[in-house]
Design goal:
Tachylectin-2, Chain A; 48% strand; globular
């Protein structure tokens, strides 16, 4: 398919090559969305052109040189303007967490009203994925530049795939795969969002879940996640709790339709609450191309509900007008 903006394509087209407003493909993988002052900001991994396999790693560890974190802005979720690489790789110090040889994945940004800072969390790792840490950076602006602060193991525990969730009361939480990806931890962040408070809950113990995407609906908390099969697709799962830190009850695969057992060949990364539209959510998946990672595509699909039960139906193409429930 010829690349175009989503608006030019008539809406969201699953797996299409998606261009920004300058006509260049959107390079923001493993990403997340922050809404601030009337604008959506999409942060994601900026993949390099060359994909290679890390030597000496047991699983299919395909990767690219780390290109930092890119940012795009939009008013309508269809048309995205490239704002630049807002967290740049450190090319001068070979032992830097953000050196091109390192792993910088799944960046998520939240705004802290009390400090006036935009805080970015990301998975930081060594080329063999042995570092298993979380990194944090800050900026005075949503479009950066972000200043990298440090990486560490939250509460002394391993951290790989992660997301950040900010609740209605302003408290924020780090959600991350830990214990060699066997168990998912949830830890509240400190009031400045720059550290964890020192306690955490263990969720999905020995269930090996990764790629968490958390959202809140009707006073309940949802986590969508994937299994641990490297770059290969697997069956998604969703879980629901009355409290942000759990306990969570798993309800199985929310996906329905062709290739639902493989999550439509995608992997969860974020759920977007659509502003100005009641009970309207979009789930973001990455469709990884492990041998050409820069050409990995995006699947954005609407989330529907029957009571508290969520469903993600395979939809080749769609627009927000198809799924309006009620304007706030």
């Amino acid at each position: 398919m010829i690349a175009a903006t989503a608006m030019a394509m008539g809406g969201f087209v699953s797996g299409a090559l998606w261009n920004d407003t300058d006509g260049k493909h959107i390079n923001a993988h493993g990403g997340g969305i922050m809404y601030h002052d009337g604008t959506y900001y999409w942060y994601g991994e900026c993949k390099g052109d060359l994909t290679y396999r890390s030597p000496g790693v047991g699983w299919e560890c395909y990767r690219t040189e780390t290109g930092g974190v890119s940012c795009y802005s939009s008013k309508d979720l269809y048309n995205w303007k490239f704002e630049g690489v807002v967290l740049e790789p450190d090319t001068t110090f070979s032992r830097s967490d953000t050196h091109p040889t390192m792993v910088v994945e799944r960046p998520k940004v939240v705004y802290n009203e009390s400090t006036g800072k935009f805080v970015m969390w990301m998975h930081i790792d060594s080329p063999n994925y042995g570092k298993a840490s979380a990194g944090v950076a800050v900026s005075d602006s949503p479009t950066g530049k972000f200043t990298y602060i440090k990486s560490f193991r939250p509460n002394g525990q391993m951290a790989r795939d992660l997301t950040v969730f900010k609740d209605d009361d302003g408290k924020a939480y780090l959600v991350y795969s830990s214990e060699e990806n066997r168990t998912m931890h949830i830890s509240q962040l400190t009031p400045d969002y720059l550290n964890t408070v020192g306690t955490y809950t263990r969720n999905f113990v020995d269930k090996s879940r990764e790629a968490p995407a958390m959202f809140k609906r009707g006073g309940k908390y949802y986590i969508v996640s994937s299994g641990c099969t490297g770059w290969s697709p697997n069956e998604a799962d969703y879980a629901v709790a009355d409290n942000v830190t759990g306990p969570y009850t798993q309800f199985g695969n929310p996906c329905k339709g062709k290739d639902a057992d493989k999550t439509f060949y995608g992997q969860s990364t974020f759920v977007i609450p659509v502003q100005g539209m009641r009970d309207t959510f979009i789930i973001m998946f990455d469709r990884w191309n492990k041998r050409d990672l820069i050409d990995s595509r995006y699947l954005w699909l609407p989330v529907t509900f029957e009571g508290d039960n969520m469903c993600v139906n395979w939809t080749e193409s769609w627009s927000l007008n198809d799924f309006i429930v009620e304007t706030k």
